[in-house]
Amino acid sequence: MTRTMEPPRHDTADRAAGPQERVDAWLTRFEAALKAQDVPAASALFATDSYWRDLVSFTWNIKTVEGRDEIEEMLRARLADTAPRDFRTREVPVEADGVVSAWLEFETATGRGVGHLRLRADDDPGDDAGTSEAGDRCWTLLTTLQEIRGHEERRGTRRDRGAVHGSGAVTQTWGERRAAEERELGYERQPFVVVVGGGQGGIALGARLRQLGVPALVLDRHARPGDQWRGRYKSLCLHDPVWYDHLPYLPFPDNWPVFAPKDKIGDWLEMYTSVMEVPYWGSTTCRSASFDEESKQWTVEVDRDGEAVTLTPRHLVLATGMSGMPNVPDFPGSDRFLGDQHHSSEHPGPDAYAGRKAVVIGANNSAHDICKALYEVGADVTMVQRSSTHIVKSESLMELGLGDLYSERALAAGMTTEKADLTFASLPYRIMHEFQIPIYDKIRERDRDFYDRLEKAGFAHDWGDDGSGLFMKYLRRGSGYYIDVGASELVADGKIHLAAGEVRELTENTVVLADGTELEADLVVYATGYGSMNGWAADLIGQDVADKVGKCWGLGSDTTKDPGPWEGEQRNMWKPTRQEALWFHGGNLHQSRHYSLYLALQLKARHERIPTPVFGLQEVHHLS
């Protein structure tokens, strides 16, 4: 949810050389310093305020180092083993607003990578740091591992032949081999990785691991892939557009709706699991998991459709979304309430509540969706807003927030999904809000009448702590926003009633707010969010392990619900944790697609016993 433009920079320096020459000059000096293992010379090529974001290629981690001192520390630890070389541009660099941007390719001792470089004129020409004659220094650098040498995916020119011609030794058909694998995996042959959670995240990771030849098994309590979506309230659709939501390898067809309905997504996930040959156990509940420090092996006890099975993988991935267990408040009087009450994750849909009174506690995405669906079947609906919410109209978000990266317009301009993902990844989180604020300033002006009407109706609206809008709220706290696909208009028009404040208690047939307001109710829906993902670790493995890894999600931005100190990356996501061989994978479809590659490569390296010394394993500052 960003644009490809750079923040305005007014630099009057005379640049005689073109962007290609400037990038080539910088890369020549950079590679020479790396080859000589001259760490001070390499770090001096970076600006005082600079950012190097590495996805696995140097650090075997997802890590951002900031400023010359941190860059120097990382290089001292990782340069010798990484042995980077052959840095080159993969397309012609461009310049805008005083910033030169270039897409890169490079090699390491382990594999092949791609990256992105932003150069700016030297902020301090008097500082003799050994930079190029043009005075360019790196502002941001992204380096990503894309494949491990000798263990490349069998795709493109490396794809399997499929048919066996001549008198080969293979006598089994494809169907026979698949049937044998399904019989044996988890019984006669143990998976190297067990992935708990068979939604889009688990399935995407399963597909990646399959292509890399890592024996893995995806487990889910639902009977069929996609049931996680089919079981939700009937009006649910994706709020992100189709261009943002592709899965690895197999994009949605070009006639797919912009916002996919839940049942259509469910069917796609089931088809995808079959076509990508993801080993998947449905109707399977994980009962417990424990890690043996001596054998370096997990013991995972599962119930597979009534059959007790013990799995012994080397690695365990919790792919249960971006959140933990539902937050269900225990309000006084909830035990005597005579109507229906449930968390939004258990909401069956609106049909049974036509003509009845409903109270929805919460004012974010799920609350709006549920209120809208209830209103449309004739329920009398009240939304209880306990804290302010950021709203952005879907059309404005698509045009101004996503259009340069994920849209038909972007595709026409040559912006592939891979390039869009890497463009987005190239922006360090420390400065991402600077790119977002101008976007939301434009949205604020474009939809001024809408926001005036919404706030006049009594809705408490915000733009995030620093005006950076929806996506920074998502990255920092994973809550506090709604992409408007119609519900906000109903709130502004008073068709969805609005009440504000905390809940004091429930009676037999009312919800009572702190100020004494009584709301009649036949139904109470708790759209009150979820806990941290490490709650799943507490439930499955133990509280000690949950506390050992600490809170998942958030950046340490010291904004609302994202306490500091600054950590610079999503806590515990897609990277090594403080519990050996335990990983977390989740997020939206975009993140599941993109970051599943880096998690899969980390697991593949361990499967092949390639050394993976981790730089910058995160500290634990918060337990939940």
UniProtKB/TrEMBL annotation:
<dbReference type="InterPro" id="IPR032710">
    <property type="entry name" value="NTF2-like_dom_sf"/>
</dbReference>
<dbReference type="GO" id="GO:0050660">
    <property type="term" value="F:flavin adenine dinucleotide binding"/>
</dbReference>
<protein>
    <submittedName>
        <fullName>Putative flavoprotein involved in K+ transport</fullName>
    </submittedName>
</protein>
<dbReference type="InterPro" id="IPR050982">
    <property type="entry name" value="Auxin_biosynth/cation_transpt"/>
</dbReference>
<keyword id="KW-0560">Oxidoreductase</keyword>
<dbReference type="GO" id="GO:0004497">
    <property type="term" value="F:monooxygenase activity"/>
</dbReference>
<dbReference type="InterPro" id="IPR036188">
    <property type="entry name" value="FAD/NAD-bd_sf"/>
</dbReference>
<dbReference type="InterPro" id="IPR037401">
    <property type="entry name" value="SnoaL-like"/>
</dbReference>
<dbReference type="Pfam" id="PF12680">
    <property type="entry name" value="SnoaL_2"/>
</dbReference>
<dbReference type="Pfam" id="PF13738">
    <property type="entry name" value="Pyr_redox_3"/>
</dbReference>
